Amino acid sequence: METVKKVTSPSxxxxxxxxxxxxxxxSDKIAQNWLDDHNRQFGLFINNEWVHxxxxxxxxxxxxxxxxxxxxxxxGNSEDxxxxxxxxxxxxxxxxxxxxxxxxxxxxxxxxxxxxHSRLIAVVEAL
Length: 127
Prior knowledge:
With 127 residues, the chain is of the alpha+beta class. It has five helices and five strands, in the order ααβββββααα. It has helices spanning 12-18, 29-37, 78-95, 100-116, 118-126, and strands at residues 41-42, 44-46, 49-51, 58-62, 69-74.
């Protein structure tokens, strides 16, 4: 009679003791492509569009794991804040006139988009 050895995965306790993990199920390729699609430069999101004001400092965002530069991020100033606040006030005029049901539809749509792209968001956050 042949003996069959049962192969089991390590227990949670064994993983914590050894700190050995398997490969992550998500590749960072999609996240890297997303960054490339944005030229790895992020400006300021004002009035529903990305703006890149001239003369602003650009801060590098680096991967804490590798030190590789992931993207550049624009540092806004008080003029940019004033534009953003003005745009928000203008948008509030329309938003405040919507019924609670209409607002809920928009918020639900945002939540669905976050849910739809949650894996991408998680991978970008983990870079």
